[in-house]
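So, is this right?
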Amino acid sequence: MNTSENINELATALAAAQGELEDAEKNKTGYGYNYADLAQVLGIIRPVFSKHGLSVIQLPHNKDGGIAVTTRLCHQSGQWLEDTLVMPAEKPKNLSLAQGIGVIITYSRRYMLTALAGITQEDPDAAKKGETEVVNMPGAELSEAQQFLSEGMRACATLSELGEFWKDLSADNRAALENVKDEMKKALA
C-alpha cells in the first residue's frame, strides 16, 4: 500500500464514514451464487464517502502480464492511500478477450472497494470450498532481475525468438521463469 506523507485527516474521515456504511445486499445471482454488483457497492459507498470529503479513483492497467486495478482513496485535504490488485489475464469460455478483461476489471473494482470501505458481500470463491487451485500471484516469487527478464520474454514475437532468449538464461532464472515460458509458448503457438 502507498500513502501520502500524512493520512491523519483521511483516517479520521474514513473511520467516520465506515461507522455509517452498511454491508452490500447480495442482489445479483450468477454462476451459482449471490453477490452484490459493482453498481450497488458504489451506490452504498459514494454518498457516505462524499459526506466525509472522501473520493475513490480506480484505474485499470497492465502489470506483470496481468490486469491490474489501482484504487486510490482521496481526502479533500489532499491526503491519499492506494493499492493495486493484479489478476491473471484470462479469456473465459463463451466471451471475447475484451469481455474477459472487462469481467476482471469489474470484479477487481468491486473487491477493492468493499475491502477499502470495510463492508462485506458474499464471497463466491469461499462458497466453492474444495474446488479451488492454489496459484502463485503474477510476479510474486520473482526477483527484480527476473521481473525484467520476464518482460523481455513477453516481448518475444516468435517461438524462435523465445527459444534464443531462453537459451541465454541461467539455470536459476529458467527455473523461476518456467511458467512465463509456458504461457509464452502457448501464446505464440
User: Anything to note?
Assistant: Residues 144-188 form one domain. The first strand starts at residue 2 and ends at 3. The CA atoms of residues 155 and 162 lie 9 Å apart.
